[in-house]
Amino acid sequence: MNCHEKKVYTNKKSANAAADVHNRDLYRQEGEMNAYHCKFHKGWHLGHPKSYDKNSTGRIFNILDKLKK
Hints:
Blueprint: H1 12-24, E1 34-38, E2 43-47, H2 56-68
Antiparallel strand pairs: 1-2
């Protein structure tokens, strides 16, 4: 799904809250969701986590985001 079809959250806090609600749903059909910034919409969307196995910078940011929680 491209970002034009996704809900735009005005800030990271609200997007993370929506992702947390989704991730706590025991009956969800999709996998885990994360918030990510969209430069085109100047807001935040929810999406499935990217694989950071081959991207060291992405792995670092993912670890830092988890430590902030």
